[in-house]
Design a protein that fits this description.
The complex is a heterodimer of chains A (302) and B (277). Chain A has 302 residues and is mostly beta strands. Chain A has two helices and 27 strands. Chain A has a seven-stranded antiparallel β-sheet, with no helix packed on it. Chain B is globular, with a radius of gyration of 20 Å. With 277 residues, chain B is mainly β. In chain B, 41% of the residues are buried. In chain B, a hairpin with a 2-residue loop joins strand 4 and strand 5. The chains are: A mainly beta (302), B mainly beta (277).
Chain lengths: 302, 277
């Protein structure tokens, strides 16, 4: 018997576990986020979901444009921009581009405050038609976050790789800080930075690509549910997820004062909503001196 | 009576490696000359970039009377089993381990003072067989195996080469044009590897993932200068300044490397500006 070509399955649909996009399920990966189709989520007993597996060369469709994700250690996002479509990015993540792609500056609101916070005050934007590719210089994973109209996400600064032009980019104060004193000198520390980037798709769907170091894990927190994470491990959170500092002092039998001198610095995350962390994170900046003031925080002495 | 006919047929049945064009036995799973898997198709993006072959853990390939085994995948190690009379050269800081009996010497290099001034390695070490010696760099990435056919010339970003067989000519080429030197992101010199009438082997370590593209004559592409890894000498490299202007602050300029074919260009996705101590 000769093999018959398989006919398209009428009425078939596939809902992506990662982004919720509904597709016909005939592709190997979700056209909105690149997650491999028909592969179960890998979930730890504690509820952390690993970033869904993505096949090399997975292709994302964004209107008339597309994005192919290439490589596994330091993945590259290779955009094929249609005429009239655009993306914006920090200029240092540009890997290569075709000569036909025009790049210009995109000014940001509140430039001085952004400059003061160490954030880029200008973003670079590229307009199609043509190919342009981006990567960061760290081994890690690319997260594709398709944003539906009205949806927003808060991202820790410097994690954004590229966003489509339909996505609005503003920032909000992180309100996570503490001060220490050394003699007459007061130092203010911002464990997750002074600000968080807020990306929102106001009217049309858009795509946001982030790059995180190491592996990425996501957790959906129920209303009121709390978890403590290392501040520098945070990648993004839903806007309604609450964050605040948490100081934890270990018990010490031989020196009662050490309970106040030694501390673990945490970020308390409270639901409802999603939170994502990275497995490779830099040490938390804490000089160990007495904390003289801080943003809203909880404390526990063991 | 079928036996003689089979013997005649057998030499014609060869598998050609898409990466290095080496001819392999039809039973081989990986290329004998570069280790590229022969049972997998090339991975090529829609824009035309081909991924460097992902070498399977413990893949072995041969050069002259020696073998190279690739071990590990995140920071791969090249373990060389040198045959009697064979030799390789390398920058000493990439050596991971060696057997005590492997003799070491130093390669005589022309233009020593210029190399020192340019921050390039002044001393290149040589190991000769028989014996085993292994190499790796200190970052996540891929090994790029480039068997060089006679008469080939390849320009490589400085400090990107891991090792080369002793019969491959090693020199350096000054990057032409002050703008290329100042804004090209690759310093003043590039390593140049050349074969004359013999083939040879060159191993590079690319940071992150490595991609290669073959440009047609006159075809151009703009790349981040720090991403450049290697190119055929026929590919012309220039710098294009990209002016990014804003009303208030006057703007800034971004330099990109303009590569014009014909020939191959290799890039790495983690574009650190490497230095060496």
């Amino acid at each position: 018997m000769s093999a018959m070509p398989s006919a398209p399955v009428v009425g078939r649909s596939y809902t992506c576990n990662w982004c919720g996009n509904v597709s016909d399920g005939t592709a190997l990966s979700c056209p909105a986020c690149g997650a491999t189709v028909n592969v179960k989520d890998i979930v730890t007993p504690t509820g952390w979901i690993e970033l869904p597996g993505r096949k090399d060369m997975a292709k994302l469709q964004i209107g008339s444009s597309s994005c192919q994700i290439e490589g596994l250690y330091v993945p590259v996002a290779d955009f094929n921009l249609a005429k009239g479509d655009g993306v914006y990015f920090a200029h240092h993540v540009l890997l290569w581009k075709e000569l036909s792609v025009n790049i210009t500056m995109m000014s940001m609101k509140n430039a001085w405050k952004r400059a003061f916070a160490g954030m880029p005050i200008f973003m670079t934007q590229a307009a199609g038609p043509g190919h342009i590719a981006f990567s960061r210089d760290l081994p890690g994973e690319l997260l594709a976050l398709p944003l539906q109209p009205g949806h927003a996400v808060d991202v820790r600064e410097h994690f954004m790789l590229v966003a489509t032009s339909h996505v609005d980019y503003t920032w909000v104060n992180s309100n996570v800080w503490f001060t220490t004193k050394n003699g007459d000198e007061t130092e203010t520390h911002y464990p997750i930075g002074m600000t968080l980037d807020r990306f929102m798709a106001p009217k049309m769907p858009g795509l946001l690509l982030l790059h995180a170091s190491g592996n990425v894990f996501v957790r959906q927190l129920a209303p009121g549910q709390s978890i403590l994470i290392k501040p520098t491990a945070l990648i993004f959170k839903d806007p309604n997820v609450n964050i605040q500092l948490h100081f934890e002092h270990p018990n010490s039998n031989w020196n009662p004062w050490s309970s106040y001198n030694q501390r673990y610095l945490w970020l308390r995350i409270t639901g409802p909503g999603r939170v994502a962390i990275q497995s490779a994170f830099e040490p938390v900046e804490d000089n160990g001196r007495n904390i003289t003031n801080h943003s809203p925080a909880t404390r526990h002495n063991w | 009576m079928a036996q003689p006919a089979q013997n005649i047929q057998e030499p014609l049945e060869r598998l050609k490696c898409n990466w290095c064009q080496g001819m392999n036995l039809k039973t081989d799973l990986s290329c004998q000359f570069c280790g590229a898997p022969l049972d997998l198709a090339d991975v090529v993006s829609e824009s035309g970039w081909r991924e460097a072959p992902r070498l399977k853990d413990m893949t072995e390939f041969h050069f002259f009377g020696s073998t190279c085994q690739v071990e590990g995948e995140i920071v791969p190690v090249a373990e060389i089993n040198l045959g009697q009379g064979d030799g390789i050269y390398f920058e000493h800081h990439v050596m991971l381990w060696k057997e005590p009996n492997v003799p070491m010497s130093v390669l005589q290099l022309p233009g020593g003072m210029k190399r020192v001034l340019a921050g390039m390695p002044f001393i290149i070490s040589v190991a000769r067989g028989p014996g085993r010696v292994a190499f790796s760099r200190d970052a996540t990435g891929e090994l790029v195996v480039l068997p060089l056919h006679p008469g080939m010339e390849l320009d490589v970003r400085e400090h990107a080469f891991l090792l080369a067989s002793i019969n491959v000519g090693y020199s350096f080429v000054r990057i032409k044009g002050l703008r290329n030197i100042l804004f090209g992101g690759q310093g003043m010199y590039m390593d140049q590897f050349k074969t004359t009438n013999q083939s040879g082997l060159l191993l590079l370590h690319g940071y992150g993932n490595v991609f290669e593209r073959t440009l047609k004559a006159g075809e151009s592409i703009l790349i981040e200068p720090g991403a450049f890894l290697y190119k055929d000498s026929t590919v012309k490299m220039d710098v294009q300044m990209q002016q990014l202007t804003t009303g208030i602050f006057g703007g800034t300029a971004m330099s990109l490397a303009l590569m014009t074919g014909p020939g191959r260009v290799g890039i790495q996705s983690m574009y650190v500006h490497h230095t060496t101590d």
